[in-house]
Amino acid sequence: MLNESIEGLAIEAQGIYADLTFGGGGHSRAILEKLGDRGRLVAFDQDEDALENAIPDERFLLINQNFRYFRNFLRMHKLLPVDGILADLGISSHQIDTPERGFATRFDGPLDLRMDRNASFTAAQLVNTYSDEKLREVFTSYGEIDNARQLVSAIIQSRPLHTVMELRSAIAPCVPRKTENKYLAMVFQAMRIEVNDEIAVLQVMLRQSAESLKPGGRLVVLAYHSLEDRLVKNFMRSGNFEGILQKDFFGNIQAPFTPLTRKPIVPSVAELEINPRSRSAKLRIAIKN
Q1: Which of 38, 127, 142, 282 has the lowest CB atom count within 10 Å?
Q2: Are residues 184 and 238 in the same domain?
Q3: Are 48 and 64 in contact (CB under 8 A)?
Q4: In sequence order, what are the residues at sequence separation of 6 or more whose Cβ sits closer than 8 angstroms to the Cβ of residue 72?
Q5: Could you tell me the pTM of the whole model?
Q6: Which pLDDT score, from 0 to 100, does residue 186 have?
Q7: How many domains does the chain have?
Q8: Which of the residue ranges 114-123, 132-141, 155-164, 267-276 would you say has the lowest mean pLDDT?
Q9: What gap in Å lies between CA 205 and CA 165, rounded to an integer?
Q10: Is residue 217 in a domain?
Q11: What pLDDT is stored for residue 99 in this prediction?
């Protein structure tokens, strides 16, 4: 949903923007096309492979860091406040298509799943060291897997597991035949979210976005998991992750944002035909009060 995301930013030619998930650079290039000579774009990506996609443009700066630190770097470069923030919470095609990263279930490779390869914790450590209870919590909360108890039992009985195919073989009896690909995607999604601490990082980012945007600035977030989308929806609506509205003495809602999308924008049929990986994407847009 490239066009919808860029339209959601309502880009001003001389504005300052942050692309928190640079990846292959598609969003950043589209933003730069709309910026004038004095516009600025700062992009972030913790994956060092993304540096290969850096854009040679004087208005552009790429920072190889987790976006949980984005406000500190914007402050350091004297670029606060900004006019718009974009975050696409999905994984990049490069990560999916690189077997040694362990993101794809169709390739064999190490159980890795680190977005930042300098981090020490991997998916192999997760499946080999977590307790029965903690593994069930990961697969239930982050993968929404109905038979998590059976899945975890199969993993624990097959330890140690070090590769994608070893894990697939171990959990084969748990995988529904008619929805095998979807089930495996949910398993790996759950592990990826845990390995990269994605929920906590998202919460930090959302709080910082409220502190970093100018009044009238736009926050645009693409989420691919119901838990992520719920956090984004609640924060845009209420300024907290529980979705509890706070009101002043006169009954006015006290929240840093006003949502511009009551319901999330989802991919069109035409987009799904071109990019099936976008099928679970949900786009939300809010304006800073």
Answers
A1: 38
A2: no
A3: yes
A4: none
A5: 0.93
A6: 94
A7: 2
A8: 267-276
A9: 34
A10: yes
A11: 81
Q: What is the mean pLDDT of residues 145-153?
A: 97
Describe the crossing of helices 132-141 and 180-195 by its angle, rounded to 10 degrees. 110
DSSP state of 250: T
Percentage of the chain lying above the pLDDT 90 cut: 84
- Out of 142, 174, 195, a domain closes at 195
| Residue 211, token pair as written in the block | 């502190």
- Provide the phi-psi class of 216: left if phi over 0, else alpha when psi is between -120 and 50, else beta: left
Give CA–CA dist 89/46, Å, rounded: 13
Q: Which domain holds residue 188?
A: 120-195
Residue in the block written with tokens 């406000």 = 71
Dist. CA 113–CA 85, nearest whole Å: 26
> Is residue 239 included in any domain, yes or no?
yes
